[in-house]
Amino acid sequence: xxxxILSVAMMLIAVLTYAQxxxxxxxxxxxxxxxxxxxxIEEAALNVKGVKYANWxxxxxxxDIIMDERKTDAMKIKMAIxxxxxxxxxxxxxxxxxxxxxxCCLYREDNSDDGQHHGNKQ
Amino acid sequence: xxxxxxxxxxxxxxxxxFSQEKVEGVVLDSEGANALSLSxxxxxxxxxxxxxVTDFDGKFSIPYLKEFNRLIISYVxxxxxxxxxxxxxxxxxxxxxxxxxxEVVVQQQRDAIQKTYFSPQNVITVNSDxxxxxxxxxxxxxxxxxxxxxxxxxxxxxxTKQIQMLGLTSPYLLITxxxxxxxxxxxxxxGLTFTPGTWIESIQIxxxxxxxxxxxxxxxxxxxxxxxxPLTDNAVFVNGYANxxxxxxxxxxxxxxxxxxxxxxxxxxGNKRTQIEDDNEDxxxxxxxGEQLNVMNRWQxxxxxxxFVSFFNVRFLNDEKQVGQVDFxxxxxxxxxxNRSLSGAEVWGSEINTRRFDTSLKLGYVFPELPFQSFGFxxxxxxxxxxxxxxxxxxxxxxxxxxxxxxxxxxxxxTRNKFKTGITxxxxxxxxxxxxxxxxxxxNSVGAFFEYSYENLEKVSLTAGLRVDNHNRLGTFVTxxxxxxxTPWDKGSLRGSFGRGKRAANIFAENQQLFASARTIxxxxxxxxxxxxxxxxxxxxxxxxxxxxxxLNRKGxxxxxxxxxxxxxxIVVDWETPQEVSFYNLDGDSSAKxxxxxxxxxxxxxxxxxxxxxxxxxxxDYKSGSLQKPLLAQDRFFINLGYETEAKENGSQWKFDYxxxxxxxxxxxxxxxxxxEYQLAEFSSPYNHMNAQITKVFSKNIEVYLGAENLSDxxxxxxxxxxxxxxxxxFDTTIVFAPIMGRMFYGGFRFKI
Lengths: 122, 753
Known about the structure:
The complex is a heterodimer of chains A (about 120) and B (about 750).
Chain A: H1 2-19, E1 24-29, H2 35-46, E2 51-56, E3 62-67, H3 74-83, H4 95-98, H5 115-121
Antiparallel strand pairs in A: 1-3, 2-3
Helix pairs in contact in A: 2-3
Chain B: H1 2-21, E1 22-28, E2 42-45, E3 51-53, E4 59-63, E5 70-74, E6 81-84, E7 90-94, E8 122-126, H2 128-131, E9 149-153, E10 161-165, E11 168-169, E12 173-177, E13 180-181, E14 200-207, E15 221-227, E16 236-243, E17 247-257, E18 262-273, E19 289-303, E20 308-324, E21 349-366, E22 374-390, E23 393-412, E24 414-434, E25 437-438, E26 441-455, E27 460-471, E28 475-486, E29 492-503, H3 507-510, E30 520-523, E31 536-551, E32 554-569, E33 571-574, E34 580-585, E35 590-604, E36 607-622, E37 625-628, E38 635-644, E39 653-663, E40 687-697, E41 702-709, E42 744-752
Parallel strand pairs in B: 1-7, 12-15, 30-34
Antiparallel strand pairs in B: 1-4, 2-3, 2-5, 5-6, 8-14, 9-10, 10-11, 12-13, 14-15, 16-17, 16-42, 17-18, 18-19, 19-20, 20-21, 21-22, 22-23, 23-24, 24-25, 24-26, 26-27, 27-28, 28-29, 29-31, 31-32, 32-35, 33-34, 35-36, 36-37, 36-38, 38-39, 39-40, 40-41, 41-42
């Protein structure tokens, strides 16, 4: 009997962990180009409740996220990111949001990696 | 009854709201009755800012937006589906499996460089380029080009450089080596000279209250030294140095990467001085005769995949110094300490011999899945043995020390809220014999700390730490420390800090220079736990402002800071009576106030200019009244100019460096009760001290340098009071207020592969 309860409990825990990872890791594309973009993207992601870690890579345009799945999901993070003007694969920033970024961050014209160059200019 | 109605109404209302403004539905993996729901599918309006993810049952609910009518449903491994939606409704979507993966899984890359936020603490980093500006020779001499630290001679005999920050001497600083407390206890007086300059990779200087992570002892600041690492240091490095006064130094490094994970390095330092120098003709050596052998072996282990980093160090040191009268020969002229009668033929001399063994282990573990979470463990053991005599006085100290610190780093919520917590254990055993009196004792402490830090990326950051320690002599006490940084505008940074520090003063080890004098030593025993005295206890408060700027297209910055250290208790070292030195508990006020303004600017391309002005007000209530700290220049002015030619492809270039220290007058300890010939003025005269150095880099492998210290040839004429009668009542080598050595040229080379 005890073993049954235990195994049931274990299974439940396993299912729960599967369903709701406290430290769910994911990576997706976010458009941007420079250190200022990096700061803006990471801050927008961290402002979403449940996001624990955000690191956007200037050369690869990949955003690494660690989040609590019980509190948030990828789309919520993407919505927050497009709101500050950065396009993702699925969601696109409105022109209004896009134009709110610093002029030197307007990545749609030239979506290249100019992290180094830009860093010096600041 | 009313309640129910409300609940029903609410439900209805929300139901209505739902059906009017949302598109709801379920996403399935196929058509047909056996279809499984897809959780985690993306549902979003094309070209919009709005999207959702399906829940565990594959269900979703997305706001209906008039501006958009194309709803996209996508899921890895399935073909995306685009639906045209013109009104809020409930839908059922079945996706078709796709053969192509439309999302490429990118392997997680680890950042080579950790992101460094602006620190809330006032930290100055001295990097290796800066360290090369003063080529000679050890940690004590590495601060010549940095205005935050003042370097003075500690006495008239040993040539030892003593450092001060915020107007307080090094015992009030926490000096760590890779965050393990290093120069403390018995090594306080000479410890900085036991780290050869070439071993140093960088130095971090924290002004004011430090972090609670490394202990409770720091009062006016922290100095941390990072040593070169086997993995990143040159495979072979050789440095030779010689100066006009017969000081020779040799440094060799050998580093080897053994496997992907293991590397090791062997570092050997030797120095020697055999040449007798007595420029001021007082019959006393201007610099000690001596030699040092210092050998360190480091092991580095790195496994990035599993998240382990480890360092293991072993170091052995032997240092011998002989000072005193030029004719002194330790084998024949050493006085009989037991029998203090003199024949008249004695020669005054002193030897200071130190042996030290150090070993330390650092282990770091970063959770591979959670880059923000880590464990750190540091432990070290050292055995320090100093045997010395100064004329009639003998001073022997053995200090055995054990230190362990376990740190856990993680976050609260997200990476903007971090914390460090852990426990510290420390043991210090001292066998200390001053002439015939035994002051042996054992100190041990255990403590726990918690430090919270908040970083709002660019705007505000703060660090708040608290530690509680239980110490067999200091009791149980709480150490709070707090730092905040605020960026009011671009390139501006405003900082504030406060914190407490507490320590057991090692009165003899810290004031060893007093042994080489005729002064009698008095300790005003108050029944306290440390030499009969109370522990030292102080609060430090500070503010600073840093502003970066661009002027004529060149970068610069200006900084101002003001710090107050306020002592609740201090062990006052009173040498205001020429025949005595007294140690007693502070009765009244003692504070150190420091103001500094510093400007850094690139005058021309590759010509860097640094200047600073400092003002100190360090006053203590002595038994004879409130006085400024003796031998401290209240006003100081500093200039450093550095120029480099453009490096050619093979790395060849010239480097020029010039430093000026302008010292204001210093108050001298009272000598008015001495016979006239042994009296000194109330204040010393101001003077300028200049150093310059030229380095020629021939290639990435070899460079040579040539330099001069004390260009203006400033010398104190009488560093030894009563030099004509060293066994007499007026002998005193402690009142040193200017350089002893005159102008001195040196040269050296660096070879690396």
